[in-house]
Amino acid sequence: MKTKPVLEPLLVRALQCEPVQRVPVWLMRQAGRYLPEYRKLRQEHSFEELIKSPELATRVTLQPVERFDLDGAIIFFDILYLFEALGVNVTFDDSGPKVQSPFTSGKLDTSATRMSFEPGMFTHLAESLEMARKKLAREKALIGFVGGPFTLFSYLMPCVGESALLQARRLLLEQPGTGKEILATIAEVAGALAELQVKAGAQVIQVFDTWAGILPGDMFPEFAAPFIDIVLDRINNLGVPSIYFARNTTHLLGELKKLKASAISLDWTVDLKIASQVLGPEKALQGNLDPAVLLCGNNVIQDRVYKALRQGGESRGFVFNLGHGVPPQADPGKIELLVDTVRKGPT
Ligand code: CP3
C-alpha cells in the first residue's frame, strides 16, 4: 500500500466515500473533438501522433482543465492501443478505429492473441502521465484508464457495431472455454497497463466497459465479472481507487455491487436512487447525466444538473459525470455552464 498524501484530491476522496465539501466533477471524453483547441492540433497531427508523443498527449490532457474548473484530468490515450500488447494491429482514421481481427475464420482461437506485454511498448503513456502530473494543480486528480475485458473482446470481432456485439455473444456461447482463456489474457494485459499508469502517476483508474451491459444477467457473472476483477485486484493492490463504467446496467446492479471497484459509473438509463439503494453505502457512484442535455438550452441544463445532484447526493460518495462521453457536437459554452452549476451546487 502507498502511504497516503496528507490531502488527496477531492475526486479521490469522494471515490473512497470520504466526506467532501462539494461534489467533484469531470467528464468522460472531456478531451476531444468538441474543443476547438483539440481540433486545431488534429489539423497538424494524426490521432496516433497526439497519443504517442508525450508532449502532445500532455497538452491534450490538460486542454479541458485549462478551460473548465474540472476536478480531474484524464490522460489522453485510447483503450484500443492495448491490442498492441496482444499482437493485434490497430489504426485510427477519420471513420474510427480499424482493428485487424484475429478471428476472421468466425471461430475463437487462443493462438491468435498472445500476451506480449512489455512496459517498453507504453513508455510514451508513462511519460505522458509523469508530465501531466507535474503540470496539473495538486488538488486535481490525474485519471488513468483501461478498457473492460468484454468491451475489448468485442472490438476484436471481424465486424463492427451491433454485428460485433452479436458475434461476441455468439462466440462466447459457442466456445465458452476458449472465450474465457482469451478474456483472461486481455484482463492480464489490462491489469498490467493499469499498474503501469498508477506507477507513472495516475491517482484513479477507470475501467471503460462500455458494452458489457448488452450481456444478459446470467452471462455477465460468467464472461465479464471475473475478468473485470482481475483488473480491479491489480488496481486495489496499488491502493488507488477504481471506477467501473458500463452502459445499460439496470439489470446488472446486483452484479456490479459484487465487483471489487470503489465506484460504479452509470449511464442515464439507470435510476440513480435505485442504483444507490442496490449498490449500498460501500460503493461510490458516478454519473449519469444524459449527454443530450448538453445540446439543450441553459435552463434545461441547470434543472437536470440540480436533479442529478439531489439524487446522487443521497449516496455516500458521488462524482458528477455524464452517462457517456461528451458528444463531438457539444458547445464548450454549455460544458462551462454545466461545470459551474455542479460546483455551485443546488440553489
Ligand atoms: O478525454 C478522454 O476521455 C480521454 C481520451 C479517450 C479517448 N478514447 C480518446 C479518443 C478515452 C477515455 C477513450 C475511451 C474509448 N475509446 C472507449 C470507451 C469509452 C466510450 O466512448 O465508449 C472506446 C469504446 C474507445 C474506442 C474508440 N476510440 C472509438 C470507437 C473511436 C471512434 C469513435 C469516437 O468516439 O471518436 C475512438 C477515437 C477516439 N478516441 C477519439 C478520441 C479523442 C476521436 C479521434 C479523433 O480525433 O478523430
Q: Can you walk me through this structure?
A:
The protein has 347 residues and is of the alpha/beta class. The chain has a single domain, classed as TIM Barrel (Alpha-Beta Barrel). The chain is 43% helix and 12% strand. The chain is built from 14 helices and nine strands. A seven-stranded parallel sheet has the order 1-4-5-6-7-8-9. A two-stranded antiparallel sheet has the order 2-3. Helix 4 (54-67) runs parallel beside helix 5 (123-135). The chain is globular and about 60 Å long. The mean pLDDT is 95. The site of coproporphyrinogen III has 20 residues, from strand 3.
How large is the radius of gyration? 19 Å
* Percentage of residues assigned to helices: 40-55%
Structural class: alpha/beta
Q: What is the count of structural domains?
A: 1
Tell me the number of strands: 9
In the sheet with the most strands, the strands line up as 1-4-5-6-7-8-9
User: What's the mean pLDDT score?
Assistant: 95
Low-pLDDT windows of residues: none
Total of helices: 14
Query: Which cofactors or ions or other ligands sit in this model?
Result: coproporphyrinogen III
User: What does the overall shape look like?
Assistant: globular
**Largest sheet composition:** 7 strands, parallel
CATH architecture field: Alpha-Beta Barrel
CATH topology: TIM Barrel
Strand-residue proportion: 5-15%
- What is the CATH class name? Alpha Beta
Q: What distance separates the N and C termini?
A: 40 Å
Order of helices and strands: HHHHEEEHEHHHEHHEHEHEHEH
